[in-house]
């Protein structure tokens, strides 16, 4: 059986990859991925063949990986964070039905919600929801409904893809929805370039978050009604005494 691994590479730094992810990539002959992600791991896996595609060519990238595995070479598709959280696992499993001779194995990684939370402290100690603000694959009406439901239920909320050049006001729109259910002084946090050079971490209120500029490399955390600042870090109680 030909083998294709789907590997979550974590936030970006080699040191934050899991041992299993590193060992998997070491045994692969070919590593496939989005150009930016391949550039982050290339120096750590010399002697491998690297195949890349640019942004928004996800299905083409998956077929490239599957074709490579079908040819008899052990291949890995790398994804930032965890391959099953806004990654390529689902698409590969779907397309993999056309390649019955290829066995797909998913190797988990550390997603931005977890690595970003560690930078801020412990904001995800209680129940939380993760929502992407990108409407490339999900209609904004659906995103808005999910935001309202999570806000009304008092979840801590983690936002992926908060804004981009084409979606410059999406974080502001999301904050306006949340302000229907949360106080203006509700604590929030932002982490940019998690696990990479130039990591930035900031704590603010929901009202201030509404006016902030972010990008696709930023992960946003909105605390619940119990989230507080403790020693310069965010912490959400879970019945333990803070």
- The N- and C-terminal alpha carbons lie at a distance of 53 Å
Largest sheet: 5 strands, parallel
Briefly note the structural class of the backbone. alpha/beta
* Annotation, overall tally of beta strands: 13
CATH hierarchy, class of the largest domain: Alpha Beta
Radius of gyration: 19 Å
Count of separate DSSP helical elements: 8
Instruction: Enter the CATH topology name of the largest domain.
Output: Methyltransferase, Cobalt-precorrin-4 Transmethylase, Domain 2
* Spatial sequence of strands, sheet with the most strands: 3-2-4-1-5
As residue ranges, the low-confidence spans are none
Overall residue-averaged pLDDT value:
94
Reconstruct the topology from this structure.
Layout: E1 2-8, H1 19-27, E2 30-34, H2 35-41, E3 49-53, H3 58-70, E4 75-79, H4 89-95, E5 102-107, H5 112-120, E6 121-122, E7 128-132, H6 140-152, E8 156-160, H7 170-178, E9 187-192, E10 200-205, H8 206-209, E11 218-222, E12 228-230, E13 233-235
Give a structural overview:
The strands form three sheets. The protein has a five-stranded parallel sheet, sandwiched between helices. Strands 7-8-11-9-10 form a five-stranded mixed sheet, with helices on both faces. Helix 2 links the parallel strand 2 and strand 3 (49-53). It has two domains: 2-107, Cobalt-precorrin-4 Transmethylase, domain 1 (3-Layer(aba) Sandwich), CATH 3.40.1010.10; 112-235, Methyltransferase, Cobalt-precorrin-4 Transmethylase, Domain 2 (2-Layer Sandwich). The protein is α/β, with parallel strands linked by helices. It has helices spanning 19-27, 35-41, 58-70, 89-95, 112-120, 140-152, 170-178, 206-209; strands spanning 2-8, 30-34, 49-53, 75-79, 102-107, 121-122, 128-132, 156-160, 187-192, 200-205, 218-222, 228-230, 233-235.
């Amino acid at each position: 059986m030909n083998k294709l691994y789907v590997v979550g590479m974590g936030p970006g730094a080699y040191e934050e990859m899991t041992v299993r992810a590193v060992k998997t990539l070491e045994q692969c002959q070919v590593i496939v991925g989005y150009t930016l992600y391949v550039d982050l791991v290339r120096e750590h896996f010399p002697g491998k063949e690297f195949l890349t595609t640019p942004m928004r060519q996800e299905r083409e990238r998956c077929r490239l990986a599957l074709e490579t595995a079908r040819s008899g070479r052990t291949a890995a598709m790398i994804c930032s964070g965890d391959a099953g959280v806004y990654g390529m696992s689902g698409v590969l499993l779907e397309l993999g039905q056309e390649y019955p001779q290829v066995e797909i194995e998913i190797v988990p990684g550390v997603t931005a919600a977890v690595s970003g939370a560690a930078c801020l402290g412990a904001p995800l100690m209680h129940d939380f929801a993760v929502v992407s603000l990108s409407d490339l694959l999900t209609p904004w009406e659906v995103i808005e409904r999910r935001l309202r439901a999570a806000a009304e239920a008092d979840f801590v909320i983690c936002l992926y893809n908060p804004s981009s050049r084409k979606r410059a006001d999406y974080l502001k729109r999301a904050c306006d929805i949340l302000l229907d259910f949360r106080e203006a002084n509700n604590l929030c946090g932002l982490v940019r370039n998690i696990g990479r050079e130039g990591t930035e971490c900031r704590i603010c209120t929901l009202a201030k978050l509404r006016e902030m500029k972010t990008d696709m490399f930023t992960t946003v955390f909105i605390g619940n009604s119990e989230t507080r600042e403790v020693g310069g870090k965010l912490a959400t109680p879970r019945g333990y005494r803070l």
